[in-house]
Design goal:
single chain, 2 domains, 3-stranded antiparallel sheet, elongated, acetate transmembrane transporter activity, transmembrane helix
Length: 267
C-alpha cells in the first residue's frame, strides 16, 4: 500500500491525470490510504480518472489498456455511438413494423448524413487519437450505412438490376453475411473490455446474422428477430455513448464500468 503524505496531496491533485505512461504494462497498482490516488512508478493519478482514461471503457470505444495520445483531442467515440444508435434504433423499429411502417425510405437521409458521414468522421478522429479499434469499426459501419442508403434510393435504379424481389433479397443477404463476419470479429475483441461493450457487440453481429437470414430465407420472422436484436443493440450503444460523455462535472448520474473477466483493472 502506498501512503501519500499530507504535504503531497495538493501537488498530486493539481497534477493528477496529466502524466503519460510510456509503456502501459500494468502489474501491481498501489493506492493511497484515502483511496483517491494510484501510484505507478513515479507517476501519481486520480484513481477515477486513471480508470476511465487508461482502461477499457465502452464510452471511449476502446479495447484493452492503452496510453494517452501525445496530442490532446476530445473523445470522438460518443459521436460515432450516437449516430449509430439513433439510426439503428429507427431502422429496427421499421423492421419490427412499428406503427405499420415497413419501408425505411424516409430514413435515407439519416443513413447517409447521420450514421454514414458522422460515423466515418468519428472513425477518422479515432485514428488521430490512436484508437485503431474505434477507427476501423466506426469507419466501416459508416460505409455500411451509406451503401445501404444507396440501395434504397430509387433514382439510382439499383434494385431494377434484379429480375425478381427474391433475387434482390438474396443479394442483400449475401452482402449482410460479410457484415456478420465483421461484427463477429469485432465482438471477439471486446472480451477484455466492459460488460456493456461486450453485450452491445453481441447484438451487433446477431442483428446482421438475423437480417441476413431474413433476406436469404425470405423470412419475415428472421427480419423481426433482427429488429429485436437491433433495438437491443441501439440501447447498448446509447448507454456507451452516455458513459463516454458523463462525468461528475456535467451530470449527477455517471456510469461505472463493469469489467469483463481478464480485463486489467486497478487493485
Amino acid at each position: 500500500m502506498y501512503v501519500i503524505g499530507s504535504n503531497d496531496t495538493n501537488d498530486i491533485e493539481k497534477n493528477a491525470g496529466t502524466s503519460v505512461i510510456e509503456s502501459p504494462v500494468l502489474t501491481k497498482i498501489q493506492t493511497s490510504d484515502c483511496g483517491k490516488f494510484v501510484k505507478l512508478g513515479d507517476h501519481h493519478f486520480d484513481k477515477e480518472e486513471f480508470t476511465k482514461a487508461l482502461l477499457p471503457n465502452g464510452g471511449d470505444f476502446r479495447v484493452g489498456t492503452y496510453s494517452q495520445p501525445e496530442r490532446k483531442f476530445g473523445n470522438p467515440a460518443p459521436l460515432g455511438l450516437a449516430s449509430f444508435a439513433i439510426c439503428l434504433f429507427t431502422l429496427s423499429l421499421v423492421n419490427l413494423s412499428a406503427r405499420g411502417v415497413t419501408s425505411p425510405s424516409a430514413l435515407v437521409g439519416a443513413f447517409i448524413f447521420v450514421a454514414g458521414l458522422l460515423e466515418i468522421l468519428a472513425g477518422m478522429w479515432c485514428l488521430i487519437v490512436e484508437n485503431t479499434f474505434g477507427g476501423t469499426v466506426f469507419s466501416c459501419f459508416g460505409g455500411f450505412w451509406c451503401s445501404y442508403a444507396f440501395i434504397l434510393i430509387k433514382p439510382l435504379a439499383l434494385t431494377e438490376a434484379y429480375a425478381t424481389p427474391e433475387a434482390l433479397e438474396n443479394a442483400i443477404g449475401l452482402y449482410l453475411c460479410g457484415w456478420t463476419i465483421f461484427g463477429f470479429c469485432a465482438w471477439i475483441l471486446t472480451f477484455k473490455s466492459t460488460w456493456a461493450f461486450f453485450i452491445t457487440f453481441i447484438f451487433v453481429w446477431t442483428t446482421y446474422l438475423c437480417l441476413a437470414l431474413g433476406n436469404l430465407l425470405h423470412s419475415a420472422a428472421w427480419t423481426k428477430a433482427g429488429g429485436i436484436c437491433g433495438f437491443l443493440c441501439s440501447m447498448g450503444a446509447f448507454y456507451n455513448m452516455f458513459a463516454g460523455m458523463s462525468n461528475k462535472q456535467n451530470s449527477y448520474v455517471t456510469c461505472k464500468p463493469l469489467f469483463m473477466p481478464g480485463a486489467v483493472i486497478p487493485v
